[in-house]
């Protein structure tokens, strides 16, 4: 699928732009914000808007956004982008994958949402260590750590939208 240029994104009708931004995250609040804050004059301008939209997500929208991400280490990610982002996990051994599955479950039982991490460039062992560290966070601290990971993921996906143009 050919991605539109920044100029084409600015010229799109709202529904089409919303659909495009939903490739970054399924949270409608995020997509609505990016649609409303157009036009974007540079990639940095769009990235800044994405960062701000992620920071401003309310609790319900954050949970929606998190739900759009597969568990780290699952064999089949929901999208080609998620599969590529998690490619470091597939090279890990069965023990790391089993430990990651157990850590994911423990995390979800504590926080009621999927463990979210910007997986690009990280090995399964690195993500496992991060999950084990973050499970000790309070819910208030962890929701903000997860929000920051979502912000990083959204930035990567915005880059991908524009790179494929």
Protein architecture, described:
There is one protein chain. This protein has one domain (6-163): UraD-like. The mean pLDDT is 90. It has helices at 6-11, 14-21, 28-36, 43-55, 59-67, 80-85, 87-90, 94-111, 124-134, 139-163. 66% of the residues lie in helices and 0% in strands. The chain has 165 residues and is an all-alpha fold.
The CATH level-2 architecture is identified as: Orthogonal Bundle
Count of DSSP strands: 0
Averaging pLDDT over every residue, what do you get? 90
Largest β-sheet summary: none
Q: Please report the distance between the alpha carbons of the first and last residues.
A: 9 Å
Q: What attributes does this structure have?
A:
single chain; 165 residues; mainly alpha; UraD-like; 10 helices; elongated
How are the SSEs placed, and which strands pair?
Elements: H1 6-11, H2 14-21, H3 28-36, H4 43-55, H5 59-67, H6 80-85, H7 87-90, H8 94-111, H9 124-134, H10 139-163
Helix pairs in contact: 2-3, 3-4, 4-10, 8-9
């Amino acid at each position: 699928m050919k991605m539109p240029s920044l100029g084409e994104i600015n010229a799109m009708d709202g529904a089409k732009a919303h659909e495009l931004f939903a490739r970054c995250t399924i949270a409608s609040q995020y997509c609505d914000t990016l649609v409303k804050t157009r036009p974007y004059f540079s990639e940095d301008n769009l990235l800044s808007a994405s960062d701000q939209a992620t920071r401003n997500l309310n609790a319900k929208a954050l949970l929606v956004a998190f739900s759009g991400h597969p568990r780290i280490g699952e064999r089949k990610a929901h999208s080609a982008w998620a599969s590529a982002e998690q490619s470091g996990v597939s090279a890990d051994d069965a023990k790391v994958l089993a430990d990651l599955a157990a850590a994911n479950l423990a995390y979800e039982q504590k926080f009621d949402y999927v463990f979210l991490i910007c997986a690009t460039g990280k090995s399964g062992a690195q993500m496992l260590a991060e999950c084990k560290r973050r499970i000790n966070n309070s819910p208030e601290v962890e929701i903000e750590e997860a929000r920051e990971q979502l912000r990083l993921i959204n930035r990567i996906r915005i880059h991908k939208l524009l790179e494929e143009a």
